Amino acid sequence: MRQDAGLLYRELSAVRKLVAGEAERLTTKWRSQIRGTACETSAENLAAYLALRNRDLRELQARLVPLGVSSLGRCEAHVLATIDAVLATLAILSGTASKPAQIHPPGAVFGSGKAMIKRQASEVLGATAEKRRVRILVTLPTEAARDAGWMRKLLRVGADCVRVNCAHDSADDWLAMIRNVRRAERSVGRKCKVLMDLTGPRARTDQVRTPDPKRRIQVGDPVMLVRTPADFGKGAAFQAVCALPEIYEQLKPWASIWFNEGRIGTRVDKVKPKRLELTVTQARPEGEKFREDMGMNFPGADLRIAPLTAKDMEDLDFIVQHADMVGYSFVQEPEDMGLLLGELDARRAAFKRREKLGVIAKIGTARAVRNLPEIMVRAASRGPFAVMIARGYLAVEIGYLRIAEIQEEILWLCEAAHVPVIWATQVLESLAKKGMPSRAEITDAAMSERAECVMLNKGPYILDAVKILDLLLTRMAEHQRKKTPTLRRLRSWQHLLP
Question: Who contacts 12 (Cβ-Cβ below 8 Å, separation ≥6)?
Fold first, then answer.
């Protein structure tokens, strides 16, 4: 055992030196943003985590386990301290523990990262139930604007915060919803923070034309996307307007376009100034409805689209005056985050709002994943911040086979940056919409305990869904907290390191 411990000590010491060097170079790059801010220590730990995960340590992990030593699988929140603790133990086991560098880090270091995440979560998302660590965020239906009693019920069954989607309803509806939230707070006796999601540059189908409203689209069918109704033409049974000009200017032949959360897959055959000619490559055997207001995704296209629209700018005026958090739907670059923060600061000054709004970065594209470390550093250096894993968009963008893997990596990365996470999209969807959950949904909801918040979408049985999720998260809190990964090399953020 002594010989094995000595060999592992030397190997891990070499890894520690490389990690510290790479982390220092990355931290230097971020220094102008983080110096003197509350997130400086967190950014340094994030840099160390990126450097550690830039190498494959699975074989080293396997050799540490028989010695009864930490295998580094829970190091996210305190990277260098965890390595130093393992080195100190290995030094004792190998009989070389007399050097000052081998002193075990103080125990308080290992609780500080988790304490920072807890503090950040409370600051941006608010408090949670006494017996439950994870918050429940609920998307409000239009009914919430009309029925103050319904809002009280929502808070009583366990909702901790609520979401208003700016893509739906009107400013009058939003104001009525928020007033009912504030009334419910006073009635129930606890706070409920309000998140308002910006619409962003939505690519959606509009003014759909089909040969027969009952006809379903099938594999092989031609589809035409046009800028305006005046551009409709012949040769395609299914046509629609997509008023997002960037797609006509940036997409190339053979690019993929997916509709309705990945239910319809198409290939771009021809690109013309005012239209795209497509062919359906994927649909169910019985076909799919081709209808208005279907969302569109462009996996692999890496489109350059302005993240804030004219509508978003108008909505920000309302949000800064009435909401607690703003959801950033199409953030992909750190510069995008800088743009939003500048707009928020200008409006805070104009409307004389003292406190800063919480910012929620919704991660739903491959480019947003690649740039997540720098997005987090840019936002967290400014104030209350959290990340939402937009699993619906993300699954279509990166492929369903990778969504489970990438959501785990995002959870690890956010823990390393001490940033809270919202687990979103289709959580208990069958229960909320139909009154009965699937077994897979219950398992998915249970696994969401690793995040700091879980988002439910609206549905006629949403009160039942909140009740069930409250019970499930309370029970899971007794069994699990985060998880222990194997340290395979991560490649998503390789571009950040020298």
Answer: 60, 83, 86, 87, 90
Q: Looking at the domain assignment, is residue 426 inside a domain?
A: yes
- Give the span between the Cα atoms of 476 and 322, in whole angstroms: 34
Query: Do 435 and 311 fall into the same domain?
Result: yes
> pLDDT tens-digit profile of 292-318?
999 999 998 888 899 999 999 999 999
Are 246 and 378 part of one and the same domain? no
- Using CA atoms, how far apart are residues 116 and 416, in angstroms rounded to an integer? 11
Q: Which residue type occupies 117?
A: I
CA distances (Å), origin 485, targets 215, 449, 489: 48, 16, 11
For the chain, first and last CA: distance in Å? 36
In the listed set 269, 297, 325, which residue is the last one of a domain according to the structure? 297
pLDDT at 102: 56
Beta strands in 135-231 (DSSP E): 135-139, 161-165, 193-197, 206-209, 222-226
Angle, to 10 degrees, between the axis of helix 310-322 and the axis of helix 171-188? 20
Residues 257 and 188 in one domain: no
CATH of the domain at 260: 2.40.33.10
Q: Which residues of the chain are modeled with pLDDT < 50?
A: none
CA distance 373 to 378: 9
Q: Report pLDDT digits (tens) over 208-252.
A: 998 888 899 999 999 999 999 999 988 888 999 998 888 999 999
DSSP 295: B
Residue 257 domain boundaries: 206-297
- 100 and 31 in a single domain? The answer is yes
- Do residues 398 and 447 share a domain? yes
Domain count for the chain, please give it. 3
